[in-house]
From TrEMBL:
This is Carrier domain-containing protein. Pfam families: AMP-binding, Beta-prop_ACSF4, PP-binding. SMART domains: PQQ. PROSITE patterns: AMP_BINDING, CARRIER. Residues 537-614 form the Carrier domain. InterPro entries: ACP-like_sf, AMP-bd_C_sf, AMP-binding_CS, AMP-dep_synth/lig_dom, ANL_N_sf, Beta-ala_Activ/Resist, PP-bd_ACP, PQQ_b-propeller_rpt. It comes from the Eukaryota. GO terms for biological process: amino acid activation for nonribosomal peptide biosynthetic process.
Length: 984
């Protein structure tokens, strides 16, 4: 993804000035114990350069604590034009070893007592360790060289690989350039010029891009860097604030870089009179904090820098000081937040509409600041970097807007979460809570921290979403009780849609922070997932039991009974399950609207006084209570091979028949799509990583594979290699499985953004988009002889569209039906009917004119897609239900002809193993992981295999084998063996 055609501007790194006459006698580095001149620094660098050049490495990792040796190692790699990879030894050994491998590191500069070094000696071959004559106990380690580097690291402008936090999976390696780093530093020199006496505090970890400005921006200009204390991997501002302030004052530090979270802590100390510039970056700079900071250091200018590693740290800026900011500007900031200002020199920016008919706009960046790209992340490069009008642009993922020639940032679009279908900006929520806390504690000196997270929890196979806001405060001296929590929520909802929200107050010392001083959302997520059930048990009460069973609620808080199920995090799927549980357990008739509108107390009032025992069910688990009632088992199911993935598999396998081979293609929650040769013992042909998890099943046409992803993209992959051919961005998660319509030259796929997209098979260009009231989970269906496209949504909408009308950009449906519950089941078309499984518990047979011809009833929702058997004299349909029954119905009338109780809910769709004019054999799985073969002529199953894992994936039949994925991360091939002379 590097911009090979770009002309690299003259870089400050084309020459190292440390040996120049005007530099050599100056002080390069000051510590409380000693000074290092530029002459001495250059000597240390020369020693390191010779060692690196003799080793012949192209990529070197640096794992050193704050100190002179770290700075010398960094500068040596730069002068030698060797790509450097900073390593943080406060992180896990596993993470750091993974980074060494991912970055193709060929050597490591570290301390002799490094834990990472100790582990490398145990795991790598041909280790060579050389002591470095630069003090500090440093050494240089090399191992067997990587035979070939990827093109991105061979780029002559490649400078470093910096890794992101990995909050969405594995860390992403960003390859930065000399051009971009030079541009950033030269802009700062021009915009905020150094004076001869200026000194810069060394405070940022080398693994963060801001450290490059700190070190290189100062030294290449001949300024002095000030290091707080003895070598340590902990940033000084986190380690000892009082000591930092003392060093700043003693050495006359004039510039420092800090994240807002640490700035808030710094404000509790005395102000160092020497500070002239405070560079603030890495998090949202809240206006209340800016006000306090300007009063704390009235002589200083606070520079709000906006950017990320992908754009070399900073692409826009604004500056504020107490003497320059007006009351009108502060009033504007109270409404919109602190502006991120205007572009730095060399950067181009533009706002791009996030979705059609929406005012939301995403910030895109082009020009000198752009990194070369993500290392080993083809999917991320396609998703985040794009070519447009001859320019290469980076999509920041931030929603921004202009006000009076200043740019403002509303928050991350990729940290935007959906809570009960409502888009919530976590950054904006935190800003609102900061504002409330600032007003509440206006007359005190109390500190606080705020972290918002969106929590998704799987309960009863439902994904539930809740907004959780952690507030860290000194709980020993400050009380934030139920009344204050209610006030905070009222303040939040005055500007935000009301969504299920929990506020959790913890002591500020227990509030998790990252090593760079930012609030640690990943740790907050771990805290919420680890919370135990309250001493007030929910399961003692029947209504509370249902809430505990189906929703992410473990304890009673405040006016619990006044909440609706939606208030507690219930989505359409969860409410559907609760509705049918109430119908089943209490034998009363409620509607889905009751589930949405009634409070917990109102629901309880509707229940009969004589309640059935908690957890009882009308569904008899007959298979577990009695033995088989027929004779010999006719078939045997045997696992032939298993392929393990890193996370669960919910998608259904795709079998692709080659000339002499069968390939199985499937994606999983570990972000990978894999292609496996089905012939035992199985071998993986290719693996392609996408940016997020995959629940969508793959579709195939010619040499292309089509699949949806949680990152909102629909991807086209090359069947032979897995290479991404094109991708199309929707505005929300894609769980729907694509439908290929080769006769029309299109692929059709739904998105959770309430749309169905029809895309060109070869280019991925959007031909038309069909809007819906709800999200689209179900795969659409087509009836080509009538030129019809059928689609359904979680709002219960069922629409029929004519292709000819769609081709004329006419989204008006031919007909439309509104069902009583969401549709999650894929749509299926027979010769005469459209079949729709609905969460209201009915399978509908709908005529092509839009009339309900029949409906087959079950006692619980249907998520399983129906399967048609046309070969019989009277065609039939097989379908499963969450009531645990597999049913066989007449296709023309919907009359149920036979059924079998499999003892557990059925989410997956059945598959036909064999069929003939005389009968058929089908395969079906239960959620609890049991695979069955059933012939409807028999009253019970013909074969059974317990895979000992939850299953959402539907079985796929190919030859005499079944392929199925499980939630225990495994893809199985299962051989069907006949115990009698029965042809399969």
């Amino acid at each position: 993804m590097s911009d090979k055609t770009a002309v690299v501007d003259k870089s400050i790194f084309d020459h190292c000035p440390f040996g120049d006459a005007e530099y050599v006698s100056r002080i390069a580095i000051e510590t409380p114990l000693h000074h290092v001149s530029f002459r001495e620094l250059a000597a240390d660098m020369k020693c390191l350069q010779e060692t690196l050049q003799q080793a012949g490495v192209a990529v070197v990792a640096i794992s050193l604590p704050f100190g002179t040796v770290q700075i010398a190692a960094l500068c040596s790699a730069i002068v030698s034009r060797i790509v450097f990879v900073p390593i943080d030894e406060t992180q896990t050994i596993e993470r750091n070893e993974w980074m060494l491998q991912d970055a193709y590191a060929q050597g490591l500069i570290c301390l002799k007592d490094s834990e990472l070094l100790d582990n490398i000696q145990k795991t790598k071959d041909n280790i060579t360790i050389a002591n470095l004559d630069v003090g500090g106990g440093a050494c240089f380690v090399t191992w067997k060289l990587v035979p070939s580097l990827p093109p991105l690291l061979k780029d002559p402008d490649a400078m470093y690989v910096l890794y992101t936090s990995g909050s969405s999976g594995h860390p992403k390696g960003v390859v930065g350039s000399y051009r971009a780093t030079s541009n950033r530093i030269k802009w700062m020199w021009h915009a905020f010029p150094f004076k001869a006496v200026d000194k810069v505090l060394r405070s940022t970890k080398l693994t963060f891009v801001d450290s490059l400005w700190e070190i290189l921006g100062a030294l290449w200009h001949g300024q002095t860097l000030v290091i707080v204390g003895p070598p340590t991997f902990t940033p000084p501002l986190i380690g000892d604030l009082d000591k930092v302030v003392a060093v700043i004052e003693a050495h006359g530090v004039t510039r420092m870089t800090v994240v807002p979270s640490l700035l808030q802590m710094l404000l509790q100390t005395r102000v160092p009179a020497s500070i002239q510039f405070v560079l603030v970056s890495g998090e949202i700079f809240h206006v209340q904090l800016l006000r306090r900071a300007m009063r704390w250091a009235p002589q200083a200018t606070f520079i709000n820098l906006y950017g990320s590693t992908e754009v070399s740290g900073d692409v826009t800026f604004d500056a504020f000081s107490l003497s320059a900011v007006t009351s009108d500007q502060l009033s504007q900031m109270d409404k919109n937040g602190v502006p991120i200002g205007v572009p730095v020199e060399g950067a181009s920016i533009k706002l791009v509409q996030v979705e059609d008919m929406s005012p939301r706009q995403e910030l895109w960046v082009s020009g000198a600041p752009l990194a070369l790209g993500y290392l080993n992340r083809q999917g991320d490069n396609i998703a985040k970097f794009t070519e447009l009008e001859g320019k290469r642009w980076f999509k920041t993922g931030d929603e921004c807007f202009w006000r009076e020639n200043k740019l403002y940032c509303r928050g991350r679009t990729d940290s935007q979460v959906k809570i009960s279908g409502v888009s919530i900006h976590l950054d904006a929520v935190e800003r609102i809570f900061h504002t409330w806390l600032s007003k509440h504690f206006a007359s005190s000196s109390h500190q606080w921290r705020v972290g918002a997270i969106g929590v998704s929890t799987t309960k009863q196979w439902l994904q539930l979403d809740t907004l959780v806001v952690y507030v860290g405060i000194h709980t020993t001296s400050v009380v934030l009780g139920a009344d204050e929590t209610k006030q905070m929520l009222q303040f939040l909802f005055s500007s935000h849609a009301i969504v299920p929200t929990r506020v959790i107050v913890i002591d500020i010392h227990a509030f998790p922070m990252t090593s760079s001083g930012k609030r640690d959302r990943k740790a907050l997520e771990s805290m919420i997932s680890g919370q135990s059930v309250s001493s007030v048990s929910l399961v003692a009460d029947p209504v509370h039991h249902l809430i505990h069973e189906f929703l992410n609620v473990n304890h009673i808080e405040g006016d619990f009974e006044k909440n609706t199920l939606v208030d507690l995090g219930g989505n359409s799927l969860a409410l559907t399950m609760i509705l049918y549980a109430i119908r089943d357990r209490f034998k009363i008739s409620l509607t889905l609207s009751d589930m949405y509108e009634k409070t917990i107390a109102q629901l309880r009032d509707l229940l009969p006084s004589k309640k059935r025992s908690i957890g009882s069910s009308t569904m008899e688990n007959t298979l577990q209570k009695k033995s088989r009632i027929t004779g010999d088992i006719q078939y045997e199911l045997q696992v032939e091979w298993t392929v393990s993935m890193q996370k669960c598999i919910d998608a259904t396998p795709l079998a692709v028949q080659r000339a002499t081979e069968t390939w199985i293609v499937i994606g999983s929650h570990d972000h990978f799509v894999i292609c496996v040769d089905a012939a035992p013992p199985s071998r993986t042909l290719w693996r392609t990583e996408l940016p997020d998890r995959i629940e969508s099943s793959c579709a195939h046409h010619d040499n292309n594979i089509y699949v949806g992803c949680y990152d909102g993209y629909i991807y086209c992959l090359h069947l032979m290699t897995g290479e991404i051919r094109w991708s199309f961005l929707t505005q929300d998660q894609v769980k729907c499985s694509p439908l290929v319509v080769p006769e029309k030259g299109v692929v059709v796929c739904g998105s959770h953004d309430h749309s169905v997209y029809v895309l060109d098979l070869d280019s991925g260009c959007c031909i038309f988009r069909i809007p819906f009231e709800g999200s689209v989970f179900a795969t659409p269906a087509v009836r080509l002889s009538l030129d019809f496209l059928f689609c359904a949504s979680t709002a219960g909408e069922l629409q029929a569209h004519e292709w000819s009308s769609l081709a004329q950009n006419n989204n008006n449906s031919k007909w439309r039906i509104k069902l009583d519950a969401p549709v999650f089941s894929n749509l299926v078309v027979s010769e005469d009917l459209l079949l729709v499984g609905c969460a209201d518990g009915f399978l509908y047979g709908i005529s092509f004119e839009g009339r309900i011809a029949w409906k087959a009833s079950t006692s619980k929702p249907i998520f399983s897609s129906p399967c048609i058997v046309q070969s019989l004299k009277n065609p039939i349909v097989i379908f499963g239900s969450h009531d645990g029954h597999l049913r066989c119905a007449d296709l023309k009338t919907g009359l149920v002809l036979a059924s079998i109780d499999l003892g557990s809910a059925i989410f997956a769709s059945p598959a036909i193993v064999k069929s003939s004019a005389s009968g058929f054999l089908c395969a079906a799985c239960t959620v609890q992981g049991v695979l069955y073969l059933w012939d409807t002529k028999d009253s019970t199953w013909q074969a059974r295999l317990d895979l000992k894992a939850d299953i959402f994936s539907s079985p796929v039949v190919h030859g005499n084998c079944l392929y199925i994925g499980t939630r225990s991360n495994q893809l199985h091939r299962i051989k069907i063996k006949s115990n009698k002379q029965v042809a399969l």
